[in-house]
Write a structure and sequence with these properties.
It is a single chain. The protein is mainly α. The chain has one domain. It is 69% helix and 0% strand. It contains 4 helices and no strands. α2 packs antiparallel against α3. The two termini are 25 Å apart.
Length: 89
């Protein structure tokens, strides 16, 4: 039986994988623009809707637009993909 922590990390990897898959559908300049927008709004984390969670998401979106990080992200996605159920791909 898997522990709760293992299931939690599996869920986190699944969530990040789905977000990255969605993010790669946009042109690179849109990803950079949205990433910068999220980082700027993340600094207003004390507000109810905006939060500090937007800063790492913005960095990740910018990372998908840069060639030297995009390749590493795609390699990670390829390693995680077998864990994702086929109905959710």
């Amino acid at each position: 039986m898997t522990s709760r922590l293992t299931r939690f990390w599996r869920f986190c990897r699944h969530l990040v994988w789905r977000g990255l898959k969605w993010g790669f559908k946009f042109p690179f300049y849109i990803r950079i623009l949205i990433g910068v927008f999220f980082i700027v709004l993340g600094f207003f984390g004390i507000l109810p809707v905006l939060g500090f969670w937007m800063i790492p998401l913005g960095i990740l979106l910018i990372g998908t637009a840069l060639p030297w990080t995009s390749n590493r992200i795609r390699a990670w996605m390829a390693r995680v993909e077998p864990e994702i159920p086929a109905r959710e791909r």
